[in-house]
Amino acid sequence: MTAVTAKTRTADHIYATGLRNQWHPVVPSSFVAPGAMRKVTVLGEQWLLFRRSDGTLSMLADRCPHRGAPLSLGKHLGDRVACWYHGVEIETDGTVSSVPGLPGCNLEGKKLVTSLPVREVSGAVLAYFGDEQHPEPVELTLPEPLTDPDTDAILCYAEWNAPWRYGVENLLDPMHGQFLHHDSHTMFDGDITAKFRIRETDRGYFFEKTDQRGVNFDWVELCRTGVDWVDLSIPYPPSAGPGGPFGIVGMVRPVDEERCAVFFWRYRKVQGWQRDTWRFLYKTLIEQRHWDVLEQDREMLEAMPADADQQENLYQHDLGVVRLRRMYRGEAEKQATGKQPTA
After folding, report:
1. In sequence order, which residues have a C-beta less than 8 Å from that of residue 277 and are 6 or more positions away?
2. What architecture is domain 20-129?
């Protein structure tokens, strides 16, 4: 894959492959065991996740500074990686520590490989992707359901052959639950007609039904807190066990222009024995039903043509999607010109 530079990173490219100057989810933490490496594509670029035997995680550009060979084909040496092509050794901060073919050469001691800030949160790896003007990570405020000790969150991860924008737009479209997911165990009830409104907040906006609440997928909140995420809540029957409404925190990672990865944390506010009961019911009964719902989303989004968002006739239910597109397009244009990102 050809390297993307500041000169080639146009607004169209950023809009297609994902916004910079913010945090993005990468993979579930379990995908990188202690002492292991994993290649991953994010925002159209190749990266290497490297975990030391003590569990410390690093993320490096998957490109040896010597000849550009993929470091992901190299050898894990405990606290560094050795390129398979010529044995050049790279520390977890991107510094060249050794050039076995020519000890003492001027590459040694230089930080020549990009290393990204990473955090692990509720079973997932998050990384900060800046551009040339904004390399330092922005402040990250995590979703409350992922940090609240009284809330139990279970991560679900999938990869879809659909643009990342389609994944986010799907979440900002509550009305599709009334039709696409009508036969699911939670979204069968409620009116098939509705009115919506946008309600601005200090971290994003709500897109919500004005004439129905607590019945179906009736509202969604888009939050921009250093990482983009959505929150929504679906009422649950008593047969689903103890706890309040069933919530979902969702994030979408751009892979490239045509693919995305989706992260869904299913959560409920439960403690003690109720948490154990909820976990048991989820793993033995409810989880497969949720996968069935996700499959409906995947099948629909993967079947949509690449120019689906260029040949549309929108109506009032699409206000949340329109607001999202304007915001992301505006951010892409700012980043292409090197302007300061919007908080």
Report:
1. 241, 242, 270
2. 3-layer Sandwich (2.102)
